[in-house]
Amino acid sequence: MSLIHGGQLQKIALDYQIPSEQWLDLSTGISPFCYPIPEIPTSIWQQLPQPSADLIAAAKSYYGCRHILATSGSQSIISKLPALCQQHLGNELKVWLPRVGYKEHQKAWQQHDYQICLYDQLPLPQQLTARCVVVVINPNNPSGQLYSRACLTDLLTKVEQLGGWLIIDEAFMDVIIPSQSLIDHADNDHLMVFRSVGKFFGLAGIRLGFVSAAPRWLEAITALSSPWEVNGPAQFIATQALLNTTWQQKQLADLQQLAEQLEFLLQQQFNNDISGTVLFKTVKLDHATEVFEQLCRHGVYVRLCDEKNALRFGIATTKQLSRLTKVLNHLNIAKLITD
Predict the structure, then answer these.
(1) Domain of 57: which CATH number?
(2) Domains held by the chain: number
(3) DSSP-derived secondary structure letter, 77
(4) Per residue in 217-249, pLDDT tens?
(5) Chain-centre distance of CA 2, in angstroms?
(6) Please, is 281 exposed, middle or buried when counting C-beta atoms within 10 Å of its C-beta (0-12, 13-18, 19+)?
(7) Could you report the per-residue pLDDT of 261-312, keeping only the tens digit for each?
């Protein structure tokens, strides 16, 4: 099963016969500002990548956890989890997944023939069964739905009693203030937490993420991984980015300002509730497919959500926001969504 994601500009450009350099690409939840790439020593390019103690120390400090493993992006762990679960829990169990959310989670479990249960709100304690797996995307992408630490701590207690796993994908947690992360609980043998470097730091191209869990699970994941899982330049860049608190504070402030401006524009244009985070804004629409196609014809690429009932807009810079405003005004969105 091949899934559609944002960030597929080359394909969209071909579909609509508009050169890729002429597009306004707001199709992802990746920051439009990336951490400035430092000068990378030649030796790092020449050597095979080795696990970096400096990177792990920086990650533990930034995320506030005791045990963490660097991976080539969250996606690499998502695809390994069902096999890991099969080894230790078997596959005669239920896996609870959000109905709306990053669909690679669902794809991975389906490919291993697990019994899938989809939820709109977290499953109730009485619905959970022995050795179940509950996957939570917090905050959710694309809905922006956010569960509190207290809520997830209660869920973890129940899952632990049942001998199951709570898996939390916190790819967008960097921008949540105050943080609702449960990563500081990841010593628990029944909890696994993912974090992403690509989103907040604007470094999706280096393919780096982290998973925090009890040491035996990190060792099991390592055993399933290929050698040289994370390239050397990625480790070098991320070590500096995770330690640079001054840059992080400015990044968050800049994103918050732009997110407010984007939300105001979308509220004016669509006259609808806007959800999301400071890395993306999502608008629910009855005519989402039609609006998506109209935007594409004008060289604006956003994310048509999987359910075809919402559009997700990545955060735009000031210049990009000006272009988006002109296109939306030209299309007369209010008329388009009521026709």
Answers:
(1) 3.40.640.10
(2) 2
(3) H
(4) 999 999 888 888 899 999 999 999 999 999 999
(5) 18
(6) buried
(7) 999 999 999 988 899 999 999 999 989 999 999 999 999 999 999 999 999 9
